[in-house]
Amino acid sequence: MVRRVLSLTSGRVAVTILTAVALLAVLGPLLAPQDPLATSDNALAGVSGSHWLGTDYLGRDVLSRLLDGSRVSVLGALEVALTALVVGAVPGILSVYLGRVFEWITLRLADTLVALPFLLFAVAVIALLGNGLTQAMLVTGVLVSPLFYRVSRAATLAVARSPYVEAALISGASVGWVVRRHVWVKVLPPTAVAFAQTIGVGFVIVSSLTFLGIGVQPPEPTWGGLLASDLGYLSHRPWAPLVPALLIMVTVWAGNLLADAIRDVSGEAGRALLRGRGARTGRTDPAPAGGA
Amino acid sequence: MTRTRPDAGTRPVLEVNGLEVHYGARRRRRRALYGVSLSVAPGETVGLIGETGSGKSTLARTVLGLVRPTAGSVVVDGEDVGAYGPRQWRDLRRRGVVQYVFQDPLRSLDPDLTVGASLTEPLLVRGVARDEALARVRAFLPRVRLPEELLGRLPGELSGGQRQRIAVARALVTEPRLVILDEPVSALDSANRVQVLEILKELRDTGVALVFISHDLGSVAGIADRVAVLYRGELVETGAARDVVSRPEHPYTRLLVGSAPTLRGASAGRAEREALRALLHA
Amino acid sequence: MTTVSEKLLTRSEEHGPPGSPDPRDRTLPLLSLRDVRIGDTGDGREIVHGVSFDLTPGKAVGIVGESGSGKTLTCRAALGILPARFEVTGGTVEIDGTDIASLTPARWTALRGSTIGAVFQDPASYLNPSLRIGRQIAEVLRVKKGLGRREARGRVLDLLRAVHLREPELVHDQYPFELSGGMLQRVLIAAAIAADPRILIADEATTALDVTVQAEILDLLADLREQAGLALVVVSHDLAVVAQLCDEVLVMRQGEVVEQGPARRVLDDPRHDYTRLLIREHEQYGLEKFLTPEEEA
Fold first, then answer.
1. Rg (chain A; Cα; Å)
2. If you measure CA to CA, which chain B residue comes closest to A173?
3. How far is A3 from chain B (nearest CA, A)?
4. Cβ contacts of residue C27 below 8 Å, gap of 6+?
5. pTM for this predicted structure
6. Helix, strand, or coil here: B268?
């Protein structure tokens, strides 16, 4: 599937951006030219040779803070997405095969979680358990998991009831075989789409929380935090908020673009697209394509 | 060329006795099959005729173990499967005795698997090595008049007729003693229909027992030795194909025969058909 | 003017088209195709190579062919609903004397339903699954005839009765998923005749139905023709279906009309090999021969 996604322009763009962001997260703190926490008297300076993005209100190098802060934001987003994936997709697939009681319980749990507003909960968790971003992200992940539950369950159901799966069962296949050979391939794409989207969601949540100053202790830099502090000094450096804002925006956009690309190469529309016939137009045109 | 019946013994390949299948619980209990008894001898072709709601698919699915019988017995190749659990069914299925061809050629093949992968699946499931499975599959392709180059293609690239022939081939690779076909030609156009029916005719001669389920009397009568008519879950008439079709006794059979459009108009006049319908609803 | 449903319900003993006061009506075809050619706009290929027939009141024309023969495209051209990929590249289609090439969308809308109606193959997909039956048929009446809700309801019940649905009041309040294929097709026929069209196109209308139900629908179409004087175009891949209902038959193959003529003549004395092939297939696999002894090779 990776190859197919990369065959689309949208896929290449999205993967490039996200890879760059990931690299930023890993290498950022190492690349920072200066100590992100070092204050100086050179406050609110503009762009210069030693400070490519200037300094903030405490004289700290903005570029270094951005690079250093990328780690927190990206890790936070990944935490949300991974937690949601594991907590949601595993019960989702299993709910089709483990009997009605398990199915009922997981369905009701998913319904309940959907009803809870995740940002508020994240704030509440931090208030109760102290200022730990990780805990907040885990909780958010659990709250977002119903999406994965629903998506993987729906995909599994669709496959489990199809004639070709019955054909496999009639030939003596075990449930394990069916899942490995037929179900897995069909569940992966929609789940991947959900994952890509959730990265974007996670990013927004981390940024929102840090923007509000929740979850990370100052002077620890984060993109959301930078955005907040930059807004406080708009009169001096009006362009300043643009940088963290753009970074957040582009990352979220790349996540959604990747989700679109995965969706485009999956399923029936995906197969048609790759066969070069062109994607279905989506109109409810009852005429057969060949004209009869 | 006389049809050769292989010496497979006289034990019926399938024996169904007083089968009852009910759906739903308590208040919404529906009766799908009631008192159905049928036996299929080795190498015999039995046509099961029924329309929507007759229970024909339920019967097929019960014999295949996809539906649990409520009462009565189902004996497949000598084994009483009525009370079988999932593991026992799996073991029986791996013997490859009974196979099935679905009605819808579109959805009976996994769209993400190549034709070769779908065809070898029944063998791989039993532990046959991939290379040997492929070799065995190749041997069946001529029987369904398909070229080897199709093995690497995806189902989406093929026509309905080709897909249905692949489905038939898949049902044959385990060399079953009984193949159940549920409306195998209904979704095909005339040329493909005839081709598949020809293939099935040739199949009879190899000693495989066939249960051909359809609402189309014409195709069934052309192939079957015996015919059984299913109406609202009950077997209302059975007999030699020719007799049932030319001298139907039960009102429903008469209605079926009378409704089929022939080149000279419907066989029974309108008044006659309406009288039969009134009789049935009484 | 009596509606189509009224004519069906009054089961008059008259056969043939009801006498219309203007004798000129008999000679003026309701639908006329003259050497209609349809092409693919993408690659410029011609898909349908010249179809011609005239449809007068009470007449039934049948088109037989496999998928890919062009029969459905021809119908769609007559209804003005060709998919964007295709267009009429030659010949003329006239409805009630008017060349359809000159019709504006507004005039087409006026024409559809009230002059020409159609039913297609898979009835369930032509109904909105979340609306009750009565409301969907009433929509036709309220849009085309401007009827108020109460009057529309009465007419809908008449229509449901006219298409021989056993419990019209019950069906009126049911949802599509509660009805069988045959019942759904009757509902669609009811909707198609609701605005009293004079032409009805039935494109594989019975293909997805059980054989006993098919016979009933074909009877209904015959009634529409005999009692209500509708002109029919019956399209099917089954020669027998067409033979049963139609006066004139066109046999199409890969966009070409390979044979055309009175139904009886085409069946008894086919001139083209393809027609002969279709007839032979029917005789081999249909009920025609009630099982001859197997051939000894």
1. 23
2. B125
3. 16
4. C56
5. 0.78
6. coil
Does A276 contact C at CB distance below 8 Å? no
Q: Is B271 part of the contact surface with chain C (CB cutoff 8 Å)?
A: no
Closest partner CB to C212 (pick from B190, B194, B256) = B256
Q: Mean pLDDT over residues C77-84, rounded?
A: 90
Question: Lowest-confidence range among B201-205, C25-29, C208-212?
Answer: C25-29
Interface B–C counts its CB contacts (< 8 A) at 95
Which H or E element spans position B241?
helix B241-246
Residues of C in contact with B255 (CB under 8 A): 212
Residue B230: beta bridge partners? B235
Sheet holding B178-182, edge to edge: B98-101, B178-182, B209-214, B45-49, B226-231, B234-240
CATH class of C4-126+200-285: alpha beta
Over 70: is that where the pLDDT of B1 sits? Answer: no
Query: How many angstroms separate the CA atoms of C206 and C188, rounded?
Result: 12
Best residue in A161, A164, A268 for a mutation probing chain B (most B CBs within 10 Å): A164
Specify the DSSP element, H or E, that contains C50.
strand C46-55
Torsion-angle region of residue A213: left (phi > 0), alpha (psi -120 to 50) or beta?
left
Contact B107 A164 (CB under 8 A): yes
ipTM comes to: 0.85
Task: Using pLDDT thresholds of 50, 70 and 90, give the confidence band for residue C248.
Answer: very high
| Residue B272, C-beta contacts closer than 8 angstroms, at least 6 positions apart | B258
C288 or C174: which leads in pLDDT? C174
Contact call for residues B114 and B156 (beta carbons, < 8 A) = no
- 3 state DSSP class of C32: strand
**8 A C-beta contact, residue C260 and residue B282:** no
Question: Cβ of A292 and C69 within 8 Å?
Answer: yes
Give residue B26's pLDDT: 67
Within an 8 Å CB–CB cutoff, is residue A278 touching chain B? no
Q: Which of B189, B216, B222 sits opposite C211 (nearest CB)?
A: B216
Pairing assessment for the beta strands C248-253 and C256-262 based on DSSP bridges: antiparallel
The Cα B79–Cα A177 span in angstroms is 25
Cβ distance of B109 and A164 shorter than 8 Å: yes
Question: Can you list the domains of chain A with their CATH numbers?
Answer: 2-38+50-274 (1.10.3720.10)
Q: In whole angstroms, what is the distance from residue C173 CA to residue C132 CA?
A: 6
Q: In angstroms, how far is the first alpha carbon of chain A from the final one?
A: 35
Q: Average pLDDT, stretch C148-159?
A: 91
Residue C246 CB-density burial (10 A; 0-12 exposed, 13-18 middle, 19+ buried): buried
Quick check: helix, strand or coil at residue B8?
Answer: coil
Helices (DSSP H) in chain C: which residue ranges?
4-9, 24-27, 71-79, 105-111, 133-145, 149-162, 168-172, 181-193, 211-226, 239-245, 263-268, 273-285
B262 touches C at CB < 8 Å: yes
pLDDT band, residue C191 (cuts 50/70/90): very high
Q: Write the CB contacts of C127 (distance below 8 Å, at least 6 apart in sequence).
A: C133, C136, C176, C184, C187, C188
Whether the bond between C176 and the residue before it is cis, its omega within 30 degrees of 0, is no
Domain ranges of chain C: 4-126+200-285
Structure-derived torsion over alpha carbons of residues A23, A27, A31, A36, reported in degrees to the nearest 10: 110
The residue of chain B with its CA nearest to that of A276 is: B157
Q: What is the DSSP string of B176-240?
A: -SEEEEESTTTTS-HHHHHHHHHHHHHHHTTT-EEEEEES-HHHHHHH-SEEEEEETTEEEEEEE
* Interface membership of C283 toward B (CB under 8 Å): yes
- Secondary structure (H, E, C), B86-100: HHHHHHHHHCCCEEE
A292·C71 Cβ contact <8 A: yes
Q: List phi, psi (to 5°) of C40.
A: -90, 125
Angle CA A8–A13–A18, to nearest 5: 125
